[in-house]
């Protein structure tokens, strides 16, 4: 669970939540949006900035005086993640619960790749689950009239579409494993080069799994037929969860950094969004 994002800034990089040092520790003021897991958390790691624009993570007790958790997440997906707005009004936090965060990117570290591979794993998992669900639904679906077959699992075009999804899901899984291996290889001795490679490999699976999760969850409903749209079955949850989660970071920019790396040997930026 993290409180990173802010809804009212001009860009995602801007942060208005402030931390100020006092005689006995620190005080936090501001507001965070889409704070994953905050409704269930005992402590809420919160990204803050001081007057010199240095970034910190403040691990704040969920019961701290002046902290308000609001159950206002209204996204059409990821409904059970315990997300919501968190407001901070002169919230005290002890010095031992505040650590520098910007230094995680000023030097080569695995903070970015490790954070992103977790998101890639979520999307790959959604894709795999939607694909497995699709197989079962095809078994129950009716064949299309022009196929001239008895069952949907004999329909050549249904088989074709399922095969495409199968290939994409497996490709995402392989890319995920390769990215994990790159992270493991960089861990003993991080350098600019091996951290860049890990970031690029993670970006590959994040970009691919974004498309795969959306495709697999959409094809599930398509190949299930009209009965796949019934609210009681809830098959739309795969697509809704995939669509909301894949908005976490723009895959189009991941492709840009991948291309710039392989074509021009330009290292990607070090941050938690690639």
TrEMBL record:
<feature type="domain" description="Acyl-CoA dehydrogenase C-terminal">
    <location>
        <begin position="117"/>
        <end position="250"/>
    </location>
</feature>
<dbReference type="GO" id="GO:0033539">
    <property type="term" value="P:fatty acid beta-oxidation using acyl-CoA dehydrogenase"/>
</dbReference>
<protein>
    <submittedName>
        <fullName>Dibenzothiophene desulfurization enzyme C</fullName>
    </submittedName>
</protein>
<dbReference type="InterPro" id="IPR036250">
    <property type="entry name" value="AcylCo_DH-like_C"/>
</dbReference>
<dbReference type="GO" id="GO:0003995">
    <property type="term" value="F:acyl-CoA dehydrogenase activity"/>
</dbReference>
<dbReference type="InterPro" id="IPR013107">
    <property type="entry name" value="Acyl-CoA_DH_C"/>
</dbReference>
<dbReference type="InterPro" id="IPR046373">
    <property type="entry name" value="Acyl-CoA_Oxase/DH_mid-dom_sf"/>
</dbReference>
<keyword id="KW-0560">Oxidoreductase</keyword>
<dbReference type="GO" id="GO:0005737">
    <property type="term" value="C:cytoplasm"/>
</dbReference>
<dbReference type="InterPro" id="IPR050741">
    <property type="entry name" value="Acyl-CoA_dehydrogenase"/>
</dbReference>
<dbReference type="Pfam" id="PF08028">
    <property type="entry name" value="Acyl-CoA_dh_2"/>
</dbReference>
<dbReference type="InterPro" id="IPR009100">
    <property type="entry name" value="AcylCoA_DH/oxidase_NM_dom_sf"/>
</dbReference>
<dbReference type="GO" id="GO:0016712">
    <property type="term" value="F:oxidoreductase activity, acting on paired donors, with incorporation or reduction of molecular oxygen, reduced flavin or flavoprotein as one donor, and incorporation of one atom of oxygen"/>
</dbReference>
